[in-house]
Amino acid sequence: MNANATTEQRDAAGIRLSRVLPANAPTVFRALSEPEHLMRWWGPPNCRVVECTVDFTVGGIWHYRLASSDGAQHWSRAVYREIVPDSRIVYAETGSDAAGSVVHDRPAAVGTLTLTPDPDGTRLDVRLVFVSPLERDNAVANGVEAGFTAALDQLTELLSSAA
User: Fold this and answer.
1) Contact 163, 45 (CB under 8 A)
2) What is the pTM of this model?
């Protein structure tokens, strides 16, 4: 797999994305879990993270605000369900307000991020599961695949510049 290529697949209620990243698993894991790194790559280029807090523990909350180039603000929160250092992160993500309360302004998903060694670095497999095919389709219509792929482009650039 080309390190700059993201593969995408859809199934009954989910989306899978995969990318080989140019860094070892501990480095990628830090980029997925530490606020100072997440703020540099999470979200598409036209919708950047401008606020971010992370309680990186099982049951802890990642709460962040995206600001789009048109001035719109988007709050989200993710509750960590599973953390396996340098290997796996599972979280449930929903829309939120500035105080961190759940709002239902877009499809909620359970995300599973899995890291595996690859000759070219670390393979990141992303699995997003929605409550139904309709919710998956709504997420796709809202740009989740394109946005996640653009974010992975930024993550690749961040990891390449750190090498």
Assistant:
1) no
2) 0.93
Residue 157 lies in a domain: yes
**Residue 110 maps to which CATH number?**
3.30.530.20
What is the chain's pLDDT, residue by residue, as a tens digit (163 residues)?
A: 445 688 888 988 899 999 999 999 999 999 999 999 999 999 988 999 999 999 999 999 999 999 999 999 999 999 999 999 999 999 999 999 999 999 998 899 999 999 999 999 999 999 999 999 999 999 999 999 999 999 999 999 999 998 6
3-state SS class at 149:
helix
Residues 152, 42: Cα–Cα separation, whole Å: 8
What phi and psi, each to the nearest 5 degrees, are found at residue 107?
-65, 135
Q: What range does the domain containing 58 cover?
A: 7-162
Contact 38, 158 (CB under 8 A): no
